[in-house]
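Re: the pair you flagged

First of the two:
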Amino acid sequence: MPIRKLTYTSNSDWPAIRDWLDGRTDPGASVDATVSAILADVKSRGDEAVAEYTAKFDCPGFTPDMLRIPPEAILTARDAVPADDLAILEESIANVRSFHERQRENSWFTTAPDGTVLGQMVIPVDRVGLYVPGGQGGETPLISSLIMNAVPAQVAGVPEIIVTSPPRKDGTINPYILATAALLGLEHIYATGSAWAIGALAYGTASIAPCHVIAGPGNIFVATAKAQLIGSVGIDMIAGPSEIAILADESATPAWIAADMLSQAEHDPLAAALLVTPSSDLAQAVTSELSRQVALLPRRDIALKSLKEWGACLLVADMETGLELINKLAPEHLELAVTDPWAMISKIRHAGAIFMGNHCPESVGDYFAGPNHVLPTLRTARFSSALSVNTFCKKSSIISTSPAYVAAHGDKIARLARLEGLEAHARSVDIRNQEKG
């Protein structure tokens, strides 16, 4: 198995590891230019541009009147999905909803003895756009992404949620996406994808209303479009290729570790799968298991390329050194495949999601447990968090002061304003006290 064997002994080894992993981040200037042109076209021509791009890349003959998925088609898709699958989807939705309900923030107010009222009002945005990749030709839809993005928006109280997903060759959207939308109670579904869908969600068209926040994963064109729209709309995050780091001791089962590494490697040739361990025996056993298991995968070509370019077994002297390296990696997904993960949790500073122990594979969080699987990548877990209810809310500060407050503090406020050279600011306070006098 062509997987790197690296050693981390101290901070001096980090720059080489960092520089290697940073090779996953550069899309190239051509993507930026292409996406910029697409966004400008969609902003100018609306539905016509969206339909033309959709016809060119996804569905020949696509026209603007095919954009909106009729409500009856959503219900028909739900009825066509096997009942057992619907039950699983319903349970997953319930678990995700239960977790995110605990994230809801309340507005709050404080009152001082002089009657001053200060507070924070938490308000959902008016409209959210969700992007759902269709997968290979629309046949491997990211159903879980729809759940993970829609549920926190609903818990936040967003009044209107719009979903876009690229159509299949016949202009339809995979029935599992539509069935999931039906279970979530979503009605505004549009058959379009890539950067032109993001442009439509941001700028609005005759068919698609403009959104205030756009969320959802996608390819480099989707990610670049979202990046270019920062400042015009809110976005969830700029997601890079997926990644997993597994910190393992001798208690870990090599076959399980290999399976978990492959669960990331099959995503994308740029996905990173890293094992951090003080055990050279475990590293060798995992390498052997990777060779055996990858041959069994339908997406083995993708997984092999990922492992060859971005997979590694990183040997450390001990678990303390391993924890130091993990915090530098700041991985999207971190598995603690150790005897006592709870003894380590307080030492983890940077990770998108942490999976505790040998019986908690990352797939548990991807699909079912409840926490969000939209996580910071490319070491951004150093300063970013998982997608949450807060992604779809905004906060307004509330300030209510009395004449007595302005009289008591006006001179101090005016002095601060004049120190900054802002005379009009100072006078806006002075004039109230002068008129009172």
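Second of the two:
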Amino acid sequence: MLEVSTVDLGNLIPAIIALFIIVDPIGNIPIFIGLTEKIEPAQRRRVFNVATLVGFVLLLFFAFLGQEVLSIFGLSIYAFQIAGGLLLLIISVKILVSEYTHDSVGSPESLGAVPIAMPLLVGPGAITTTIFNLQTYGILISILAVLIVLSVTWVILRFINEIYRFLGKTGALVIARVMALLLAAIAIQYILTGISHFMNIA
């Protein structure tokens, strides 16, 4: 029994680390602040609660059925990567040249679902990593990794108001714009990776 637990722990740690790096809630903090800078603190908490819940459900869904869903629609993970990259690119451009905030969406819940939960937290990379964890470590490790990473993400987002006050409005705005530029670069890399795959097999 001890040996099995040790092996499971040895699989769980790399699964958690890989997923946490891809979800990257700490690195995305300036973008989250930029997206919610016009929202009251209480509403901001609702946005992040919804984002965490939606992210958890999405990752669990893809942990169980991701490969099957892509197969049903005849899609590859690379096509999904291109689509996610395009969406991220649109979001980053809106942050850079205008103000992609709560005013442009219907409700805190919709902002929490898109774009914070999907594709910022749960993008092509997180979905691919979850499917990889499932195939490599099994369903139990995959589910535990999703649960732990999203729980840590919720804790980080829970204190984002304090982080926002520490940075100040100007500091948060500047950092959010810089991170939006990096997000655009990441989006383009997603797109190029997907396109290069299809060019190689053509």
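DSSP finds eight helices and no strands in the chain.

-B.
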